[in-house]
Amino acid sequence: MDSNVGGFFGPYFKFSGWDALEIQGKADKDVVVFIDGDNGRVTIEEVDLDPSASHLLSDQLTELMAESEQGRKNVSVVSSGSGAEHTRIGVLNFSFYDLRRKAARLKQAGRGGIGTVFRDKKLAALVVKFSGLSGKSNNPADPAKIARTGVKITREINKFDDTQFRMRQIGTANLMTPMNDYDLLPVHNFKYGSHKDAVGISSEVLRSRFTQKMPDGCWVGCALSCCKAVDDFVPKTGPFKGEKVIVDGPEYENAAGLGANCGIFDADYVIEANFYCDTYGIDTISTGTIIAFIMECYEKGIVNKKITGGLELNFGNAEAAMELIHQMGQGRGFGNIAGQGVRRLKKIFAEEYGGDPAFMQDTPGFYAGYRHGKQRPGVFAVSG
Description:
Layout: H1 9-15, E1 31-36, E2 41-45, H2 54-65, E3 75-79, H3 82-86, E4 92-98, E5 103-109, H4 114-120, E6 123-129, H5 143-160, H6 167-170, H7 176-181, H8 203-209, E7 229-233, E8 245-248, H9 252-259, H10 267-280, H11 284-299, H12 305-308, H13 318-330, H14 335-338, H15 342-353, H16 357-360, H17 363-371
Helix pairs in contact: 9-10, 9-11, 10-13
C-alpha cells in the first residue's frame, strides 16, 4: 500500500542519514523505536506510556525525548491508537511540534490500514530526533538554485493562491462549497452530489472555525501552509468530553466523508468526529464510507437496531454515528463488525442477514442518482 503524509518525521529521518525503514517481526510488549539523528544511533526501548490515545502519546514522547521546551521542535513521533488495534482501518499519526501552540500536532498517513499493522507489531511509536536544521541538511547539490526556485514558487503562491485555491486561507476545506455547487459532493453514501443543508459545513463555515488565520504549515519554510487546526475545541462525547483539545483540520475529505456522505451537516459534529478518528488512529475517509454504507443498509432494512446494538443509523443521525466511532475506536459492540470495512461488511450482511449483494455493490444507488437527476453523466458513485 502507499500512503502519503506531512509533518516532520520524513525530513528528520532523511536528515538523520536514512532513506528507508523496514520493520520485521513483532515485539512481545509495546516498544518505541528511537532514531537519534544527533548521535547516529537507533534503539528499541520500553516506555511505560498508554498508546491508546495518539495525541496524548505524541505530546508525552515529544516532552520525554526533548532536552528543553525549544528542543521539542526537533522531535517527531509516529503513533497510532486503540482504534488501529480493533479495526482494519488503522492510520499512522505523524507529529510536528507547533511552537506557537506549544503542542504536538498530528498529520495522518490514513489509507491502507498501515496503523493496524503497526499496532499488531506492538509498536507504540517511532520517534526521530534531529537538531541543527538548516537549508543544507539534505546536502543539496546546488543550494543557490534551490533558493532561487523557492523564491519563485513563494512569489507565485503569494500572488495567485488567495484568488484561486485559497490553500493558505482554508486548506483543502476550500473544496466543500464548490463540490456541492457542482454536484460533486458525496451525499448519502454517494447517491447524490449535493444537498440543501450542505451550507452547514460549507467552506466559509469551516474557515470560521480555524483558529490561526495566518499561514499555518506542517513543515518549515512551506509557502503554501495549508495545514489548519481548531484550537481549544471541547468534545461533547467520549473519553475527552469536556476537555480542550487541538483538532487538526478538518480537511475536505473529513467534512465530506464524515459529514455529507452520512447526511450530517453539523460542523461541530465533523470536528469532533475528526478529532476522535485521529486520536483513536482510524482513517477518516474509511470511517465515513463505512458509516454511510451502513446507514444506507439500515434504511433499506438489511440491518436493524437489534443487529446494531440499538444504534438508529439513519442518514443524519449524528449521535448514533459518533457512538459508532467510539465503538470502533474502543473495540466494543457493533463497532467490532463495522471496523472490518465495507468489503467484509457486504459479505457479512449478505450471508448473515440476507442482504442483496447486487444492491450492496451500489448499482441501485448509482441508477437512483441518475433517476433523481443528482449525478452528472460520467460521474460514478462508488461507496466501497
